[in-house]
Structures are given as structure tokens and as C-alpha cells.
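Suppose a colleague, Dr. K., hands you the sequence of a protein chain of 158 amino acids and asks what its three-dimensional shape might be. Before reaching for any lab equipment, you can write down a predicted structure in C-alpha cell form. Begin with the sequence itself:
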Amino acid sequence: MKLHDLKPNQGSKKSRKRVGRGISAGQGKTAGRGTKGQGARAGGGTRLYHQGGNLPFFRRLPFVRGKGFTPINRIEYYEVNLDRLAVFEANYSVTPETLVEARILRNTRKPVVILGNGDIDVALNVQVHRISKSAREKIEAAGGTVEIIPLAVSGQGA
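The predicted structure, expressed as C-alpha cells, is then:
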């Protein structure tokens, strides 16, 4: 094969439609522009983003977004309530990995926060990224310990 042998695939190139060349050509008279109106006139048509009588999309956006803004550096946590930790035995080390093994979490993609909903009566060694004050008090009252894992540099969890 040489350069002069190259040609486009069959059917990929179509000849230009010549409009306004009489009725036998199939695109005579109005030449595909319809009858009257803004689109039929020379130089007619609307500007970019025109939406008729509607408020244009880019002007609607502030109303769609609502009040305030969404912080771009927000960290999403997996939330685990204290009553979910009742499945572990005493002196067990609770980490994001052991929570996945116990099927409390799906994966360790996001950091973990322990919330204080429920009670606990076994001493656990909890290692998580964040913990609420009430959850910490309940774990320590049961004889357990709490260790905070530092967040990863990227902003999302370990």
C-alpha cells in the first residue's frame, strides 16, 4: 500500500447538498429554511445560548445552586454508630480494615468516623480517623481506648 492508494471508507464522505437550485434538486424554493420567521432570513438565527423566552441557563444557575456553596475540599466520612461495634469481643482492635472484615463497611476508600448513637459494654481498642465526643466517652467508660489515625495527605482517607 502506498500513499496514493489511500482513500476514505465507503460511505464516509458525502457530497455537499446544493440548496436553492430548483424544485428538481429537492431543496428548491425555501431551501430547507421553512416559510418566514427568524431562521428563514439572511443573517437570521439566534445567538449562542438563546432559549426563547426562558431565562437562559447560565442566568438560572445561581438559583439552581441555592444558598451558600459546596466546599471543594470537603472530606466525606464513613459514619459508624457505636451500637454497630457490639459485634466485636472485648479488647478487640477496631480499625477500618477490621470493620470491612466484619462487613460493617464496604471498603476503606473514605476515612471513618465513630458516632455516639447507642451504647457499648465491652472494652475495645478503637483506631479511626475521627470520633465524636460522646462516642469517645462511652468507649472509655467501658474500659476501651481511642486512637486517632491521621488523614492522608490527599484529603481523602487511608
